[in-house]
Amino acid sequence: MLKSIRERNTAVLPADLPIIWNNRLRKTAGYCYNRRIKSSDGSFVRSSRVELSSKIVDNSARLRDTLVHELCHAATWIISEVTGGHGPTWKRWTYRAMEAFPEIPPISRCHNYDIETKYKYKCSGCNYSIGRHSKSLDVERKVCGICCGKFELFVNKKNDKGKPMPSTPRTPNAFALFVKENYGSAKKSKENLKHKDVMKILSEQFAATKISNAIPEERD
Ligand SMILES: [Zn+2]
Ligand SMILES: [Zn+2]
């Protein structure tokens, strides 16, 4: 497809526009780096370089969709000579691309692929999750930044319903139970509380109960 993009646009994008695989690009599927160099006659030469994440772009459909998105950035920069992210000029290029290739899916503003990581750490309190390519998170020491809940490790294996399976059989932990029992009352304790605030209150309360539990009870 790249060849045909180039053929259809011979007058526009340079045929030697670098397209490079990058295995360290992990936050986005692709990126278009734009440069402007002053040449000896004082004029400016614009160039672009597209990098694709080999970790995220792992099938041909993603390659096609990411590449056409990034080439629209390159066209915006080199041909239309403007910047401006996913603004009107970039959008116009996506319409042209979609006109030229009606068979491809609509070009979206962001590469919203679920980044396929082998391991997923999910907070048992608020379900916030982070992906890792290795077992790099120490779940005994690191707690959730949103609610201080405990992380649970999931390996990217799916059960028969297509849901990711926990690496160890799930046992509800004390904090998760505490959240379940007290979420409603904490939410009502103040007006307009966001989920994050409720979780903060709950984790403080939970910590307090742990402390009070630790104190030996007085006998009368
Ligand atoms: Zn973009
Ligand atoms: Zn959490």
Automatic annotation (TrEMBL):
Domain of life: Eukaryota
GO process terms (BP): DNA damage response
GO cellular component: nucleus
All copies of domain SprT-like, residue ranges: 3-154
InterPro entries (UniProt xref): HMG_box_dom_sf, SprT-like_domain, SprT_Zn_ribbon
SMART domains named among the record's database cross-references: SprT
Protein name, entry field: SprT-like domain-containing protein
Upper lineage: Eukaryota, Metazoa, Ecdysozoa, Arthropoda, Hexapoda
